[in-house]
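Friendly challenge for the regulars: who can give me the C-alpha cells for this chain first? No prize, just bragging rights.
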Amino acid sequence: MNSTVTRALKHLASSSEVSLLPAGPENDASARTWLANAIAELPARERLALALCYEEGLACEEMAVVLGMAADEAEQLHTRALSHLASRIADNEKRRDDLT
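First reply, four minutes later:
Bragging rights claimed.
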C-alpha cells in the first residue's frame, strides 16, 4: 500500500492545483498517512484500480483484463478513484482554510 500511496500522491500533486499539505519534508509523513487513510476509505474496486495502476504499473487495458471489464470502464474506474481523492483533498484544504 505504501508504494500506491507514494505514486498516487505524486500523480495527484502533478495533476492538481490543490496542495495536500504545506510543502516541506516535515509534512511528507503526514501527507502519506492522510492519503493512505483517504485511499482506505475508497470503495474496494477503486482501491484495487489504484493498486493495479500505481503498485503493479498496469495500464488501463491491462487493468481491464484483470478486472474483467472493458478498457474504457477500467479507465473510468481509475478516473473516479482519482476524482474521489481530489475531492477529499479539496475538502481538506477548505477545512484548513476555515481554521485560519
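The domain at 2-16+23-99 is CATH 1.20.140.160 (Butyryl-CoA Dehydrogenase, subunit A; domain 3). Residues 16-26 have pLDDT under 50 and may be disordered. Your move, everyone else.
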